[in-house]
Amino acid sequence: MQKKVFSPLLVVSSFLMSAPAWGYCSEPSFSSSAPNAPSSSSRPSVPYCLEEYRITGRPTCQSWEIDSYKSELRDYIEKLQRYANESIDFAKEAISFAKNAQAYSKCEATEAANRD
Asked: Which residues of 57-95 are buried (b: 16+ CB within 10 A; e: fewer)?
């Protein structure tokens, strides 16, 4: 005669599947903070020589002035792009938190309703 042997994992998992949902609803947490936007005061100013060009139609800028302005502008745009990416990540985390909060609320409501 052969003995039937039950795996402890099978026994535990079948118990958990049939057991009522006592007790533990995991409250969500949210520790992220919104990113800070680059200040508009850090936006590079257009060099005077370019402003003058708009008025007179004569270029008076030296190449180093234009190169410097382009470099500052690139840096500012990179900061804006980083801010946009960080904002998207923050929003995704906030959405995840909201979903977890909803699940927690449902779990707590179910627990409260099932208590005698």
From this structure: eeeeeeeeeeeebeeeeeeeeeeeeeeeeeeeeeeeeee
